[in-house]
Amino acid sequence: MAFKPIEEKVLRNKSDEVKVAPQEQSLELEKTETSTETETTSPEQKIAPEQTGPQKSRPIIQKRPSLPPSLKNQTVIKIEKIMEEDLNDSYQRLSPVAKQEFKLKGEQTAAQIQELLKSTHVKVKKILNLILNWLRILPGVNHFFLEQEAKIKTDKIIALNKKE
């Protein structure tokens, strides 16, 4: 009776070995291919150690890049300049993660404001709400101060739109 479980284990191990053997062979082939590649490349073009072994699938987190200034519309750049006025102190107090969030939300807000300014009937209330929602990201700032800043920035943006 003691022999049956041992035989089953041996059979399982043999079947596992059969399944594993082609994978091991392919890994050995990959290792030999990468070793020949490193021999043919010059010393300046060495392959990184991470690339020679089997690759593990990791989730890739990509940052959503902001548009470079050359690709942004001049109106959006002017709107962003107006939006960032008088916020340097509050911005410097933010954590790096909060700074990035504040920056991205500000860029999105500026793009939305530009779209609103393109329409024939400018909706000042929507622009004011966009700016106010963006400013609410700043922690520890008085609500009335935020409303006042949002109103000032909205007036400047409307004046910019009328000038153009």
Structure explained in plain terms:
Residues 13-69 are annotated as: Disordered. Residues 35-46 have a biased composition (Low complexity). This protein has 164 residues and is an all-alpha fold. The protein folds into two domains: 8-52, no CATH class; 74-163. The chain has seven helices and no strands. Helix 3 (74-84) packs antiparallel against helix 7 (143-163). Residues 7-11, 13-29 and 31-49 have low confidence and may be disordered.
**Tell me, what's the shape?**
globular
- How far the N terminus sits from the C terminus, by CA atoms, comes to 94 Å
Let me know the number of strands. 0
Backbone structural class: mainly alpha
Query: Low-confidence spans: pLDDT under 50, at least 5 residues?
Result: 7-11, 13-29, 31-49
Oligomer: single chain
Strand/helix succession: HHHHHHH
The major pleated sheet works out as: none
- Percent helix among the residues? 55-70%
Radius of gyration: 30 Å
The average pLDDT is 74
Residues in β-strands, percent: under 5%
Number of helices: 7
The tally of structural domains comes to 2
Summarize the structure.
It contains 7 helices and no strands. The protein is mainly alpha-helical.
Supply the key terms:
single chain, 164 residues, mainly alpha, 7 helices
Record the SSE blueprint.
Blueprint: H1 3-40, H2 49-52, H3 74-84, H4 88-92, H5 96-118, H6 124-135, H7 143-163
Helix pairs in contact: 3-5, 3-7, 5-6, 6-7
